């Protein structure tokens, strides 16, 4: 048995997308490690790191018994792609002569639609690792939990009730990926993703976490996290990002695990810099000091809005004072910061958007990212507006989609045209990528 795992591209094959980053398909590497544990041979084709044309991909696929294609890699589980035409085209093309299975957040949200469009054998719902292993090792696909199939017009599906224990993952076969291709414009080259937890205990209304992560929260033992980093370091990785939804959570268990990760990283004395995503209300100066000593160089904060009214409406549960405190604490220790903001949440007025722009420009953030609020399937936001999505009626009349695009352009210009921000752009690891990225996003489209 030979298995091929394919990460579909962000944009068209053999073309570069707007983002100047290439992030590895960590979940495919997890699957490959678990298959190896079962004695099953597998390979990974990452079409973001190694673009291939249809002919080459078709030729490669001839050597495999089963093919699994993801609509989005783990870096997009939280925010699925809005354009997956390439994924559909690739899946349909390979389904004509191969046994193809599809997976990913878009597939999990609309399995029937994608099964019909791709003509795949079955769709995997939710996190894929254990389900893929069962499909490969068992005979009857219809009996496997977490698999969606259609037979004679009848839908066959039973939800998965068991989830991956991150502590059961073997050491990952990093050599199956072209490591030198991965990069993050804010961290540089020699870059890779790591995972210390999965899921999130919070309830932001705009987040579609339950589609892929379920509703639980699981941690990975600190020694295993550092084991993975140490092996990647041996292979040349010097920069990493914890892809956890929340690296820091307000629980005793999480705090203990984060401290242990930091302690072990310090003991290893590796020249390794890392970044993470966390909430502003999950940090204090004590844990930040430990993170900094262990190599933490950049923290991503989901701030979302500068309007207290919208902060309450979107279920984030944070305040502007907490935002200011967290960012100032990180700055005090020399940790760079990224703030993520969104415009166009349901009920948001023009004044709320202006408040967000003003708040962002006054914060002492290193970088800021501004985006349109997207009602991803699986989120409460989506359920609130799903009947109005096609005509975008859920946007307030005074802030049409065209006006939101202008607002975003204004936000980028106001934030990055400050002397401090311009200086930061020129000190970023991948300077040309960062400047080009800013120029792209500051345009009105």
CATH topology of the largest domain: pyruvate-formate lyase- activating enzyme
Structural category is alpha/beta
**Broad shape:** globular
Strand order in space, largest sheet: 2-1-3-4-5-6-7
- The percentage helix is 25-40%
Largest sheet: 7 strands, mixed
Measured between the Cα atoms of the first and last residue, the distance is: 48 Å
CATH architecture of the largest domain: Alpha-Beta Horseshoe
pLDDT average, as an integer?
Answer: 90
| Content of β-strand | 15-25%
What's the number of extended β-strand segments? Answer: 15
The Cα radius of gyration reads 22 Å
Total individual domains: 2
Describe this structure in words.
Helix 1 packs parallel to helix 6. The relative contact order is 0.09. The chain is globular. It has two domains: 2-156, Rossmann fold; 183-441, pyruvate-formate lyase- activating enzyme (Alpha-Beta Horseshoe). The termini are far apart. Residues 13-17 have low confidence and may be disordered. A seven-stranded mixed beta sheet has the order 2-1-3-4-5-6-7, sandwiched between helices. Strand 14, helix 13 and strand 15 (367-372) form a beta-alpha-beta unit. By secondary structure, the protein is α/β, with parallel strands linked by helices. It is built from 17 helices and 15 strands.
Write a brief structural summary.
This protein has 445 residues and is of the alpha/beta class.
